[in-house]
Amino acid sequence: MTNPSLDHTMDKQRLLRDLRQLGVQPGMELLVHSSLSRIGHVEGGANTVIDVLLESIDPAKGTLLVPTLTGSSADGPQHPPRFDTKESRCWTGLIPETLRLREEAYRSVSPTHSVAAIGKHAFEWTRGHEDCWTPCGYGSPYYRLCRRGGHILLLGVTLESNTTFHTVEEVVGVSYHLQSIPVTCAMTDVDGNEIVRQLMLHDWGTPRRFSVLEPALLAEGIMKRARIGQADSLLIDAARMFTYASARLMNDPRLFVSPT
Ligand SMILES: CC(C)(COP(=O)(O)OP(=O)(O)OC[C@H]1O[C@@H](n2cnc3c(N)ncnc32)[C@H](O)[C@@H]1OP(=O)(O)O)[C@@H](O)C(=O)NCCC(=O)NCCS
Question: How do residues 247-258 score in pLDDT, each as one tens digit?
Fold first, then answer.
């Protein structure tokens, strides 16, 4: 099936203007979940989008992060995930897969939920993930994004792609999110060193409905909506989202669980 948004050609100036109008500014620490095809036809493809995103945050002042997730529903004690920082392709789209392969990119070491980053604090954002007991909880890049004034851009995707809601789930301690026992995971860092850790893994069995919070996050001014090219996009203040969503989830621990 053809994607109608590809009929429109987007250039760098247009995309940069749209990012500015949504509120992306130099100096931001920005985690981007994306769909390239939703933007419309982009001259230069994923590399152009990465260049524009970098220009929008100014890598001398801020940092661009992308999720480079590799986990699968097969992961568990019988089938421990195997992660190689250089070799493991991510399934979160062509933009993150292209960014992680850039020479200047850093990538965190996590069996399932790694991130890649370019910019001023790229090294700091990506270090230490291998020592986090849970994929998105205390100490992880997602958690620190909420604690250090970060923003999340959903570029052509919805709140269903917002991994940082798992941070909220982990910190609140919902019952359905993690597997019941730790798994021994072997990971290879960027220099080829083997790292072995016992870690709690994501349990992929529970369908979510993160978009349930969309009206409230917009009404509270925690999230803004605009188009980047042809892509319906959302810009979120991570700290305010964390505080708001945590309070809602504590009141209703099944808030994010899809009824179907
Ligand atoms: C799954 C997902 C990545 C698919 O989006 P997508 O736009 O179809 O795919 P990508 O972003 O990988 O971009 C590749 C597609 O862009 C399109 N494309 C190719 N060149 C292009 C160009 N120059 N300009 C615009 N689009 C182009 C093609 O359709 C290509 O798909 P194809 O290779 O199958 O032909 C997206 O829907 C998504 O979910 N993203 C968020 C993932 C995430 O962060 N999840 C977190 C989970 S907790």
Answer: 999 999 999 999
Residue 37 within any structural domain of the chain: yes
The pLDDT tens digits of the residues spanning 8-67 come to 678 999 999 999 999 999 999 999 999 999 999 999 999 999 999 999 999 999 999 999
Best of 33, 37, 168 to mutate for ligand 1, by most ligand atoms within 8 A of CB?
37
177 lines ligand 1 (CB under 6 A): no
> What is the distance between the alpha carbons of residues 177 and 199, in angstroms, rounded to a whole number?
14
Q: Where are the beta strands (DSSP E) in the chain?
A: 9-10, 29-34, 41-42, 63-67, 82-84, 106-107, 115-119, 151-155, 183-188, 194-199, 223-228, 231-237
**Atom 32 of ligand 1: nearest residue by CA position:** 37
CB-based contact 54:48 (threshold 8 Å) = no
Nearest to 29 by CA among 59, 63, 54: 63
Q: Which domain holds residue 126?
A: 4-74+84-173+209-251
Distance 40 CA to ligand 1 centre (A): 11
Q: What is the pTM of this model?
A: 0.97
Position 182 in a domain: no
Q: Give the CA radius of gyration of the chain.
A: 18
Name the closest-CA residue to atom 15, ligand 1. Answer: 37
**Residue 46 to residue 99: CA distance in whole angstroms:** 8
Q: Which atom of ligand 1 is nearest to the CA of 45?
A: 23
* Tally of structural domains, the chain: 1
Helix axes 164-172, 238-251, angle to 10 degrees: 40
